Amino acid sequence: MTPAPAPVLIDAHHHLWDLDQRPQPWLDDPDLTSIRRTFTPGDLRSTATAPIAGRHLHNTVAVQCMPNVPETEDLLALAEQEPLIGAVVGWADLTSPAIGEVLDRLLARPGGTYLRSLRHLVQGETDPGWLQRPDVERGLAVARDRGLSYDVLIRSHQLDQAIRLAERFPDLPQVLNHAGKPPLARRELADWRRQMQRLAAHQHVVCKLSGLITEADHDSWTTADIRPVWDILLTAFGPDRMMFGSDWPVANLAGGWNRWAATVDELLGDCAENEIHALLAGTATAFYRLPALG
After folding, report:
1. In whole numbers, what is the pLDDT of the chain averaged over residues?
2. pLDDT at site 219
3. pLDDT > 80? residue 64
4. Which residues of 27-62 are buried (b: 16+ CB within 10 A; e: fewer)?
5. Which of 86, 88, 123, 270 shows the greatest Cβ crowding within 10 Å of its Cβ?
6. Tens of pLDDT along 129-149?
């Protein structure tokens, strides 16, 4: 009999930054004052104490914030030293003719084996077809050919780009960050629902259950506000194509790691054990090629 997978929890989306080592200019926004400080793996380990379905934090995926290669190099070096980090989502300029050389250097450097995916802040791009630009598509093909996946960071009005990306790159593993940032605060989910159903029809695309509390009202959201999004995602993707992520420390703006974990624990109440395992560990392990569980 095959033994059951170990009951562990993987946080498939969090950030780290050391402001003494590398500035994060985006934190200059006055609304972000409360997270304008250094956050380390030790901070995450001491913060993330709430269990989900009886599981405690076991492994994580550290995700880039800045569109520069040095930050990615920092994260790779940190992953080599820090047992908690199992993979890194980095950044490289997809539009650069030198993208292949840059990725080869990153993969060959100390900690380079932890680079499993790339991400660009498409949410900040004004071009409504940025992901379909010829130079971007060339860069995505180069990343794919080096065995990397792609983390799709968009806002809900950009979901058409994600759908076209899925259509044009069926052999590039893709994960939608923060469920495409549904407009939870406005409670206007109809258009987002339709687009998510279209995206989920592409079986090589998976979805992160992350970043939702910062799309809701930071001060007054409840589990009831999150549940409609949960129900839509569960129907569209199923637990085998969903993965838990905290978006810590950005999540601190709207309640923090433990409150989000408690919310996910409640949402999982009607799920079977195999579904819980997929969402809390299995999907992330497969997508990011994390160490085998067990």
Report:
1. 96
2. 95
3. yes
4. eeeeeeeebeeebebeebeebbebebbebebbbbbb
5. 88
6. 999 999 999 999 999 999 999
Q: What is the pLDDT of residue 118?
A: 99
The residues pairing with 88 across neighbouring beta strands, listed in sequence order, are 62, 115
pLDDT value for 275: 98
Calpha distance 152→138 (Å, rounded): 16
Where residue 294 falls among pLDDT bands split at 50, 70, 90?
Answer: low
Q: Would you give the DSSP letter of residue 87? A: E
Short-list 294, 287, 225, CA closest to 12: 287
Question: What beta strand segments (E) does 23-138 contain?
Answer: 57-63, 85-90, 115-120
Assess contact for 38 and 250: CB atoms under 8 A. Answer: no
Instruction: Strands of the chain (E only): list them.
Output: 9-14, 57-63, 85-90, 115-120, 149-152, 174-176, 205-209, 242-244
Spatial CB neighbours of 96, under 8 Å, sequence gap ≥ 6: 102, 139
Structure token pair of residue 281:
């560990």
What is the dihedral sign for C-alpha 126, 102, 206, 113? Answer: negative
**Distance separating alpha carbons of residues 32 and 30, to the nearest angstrom:** 5
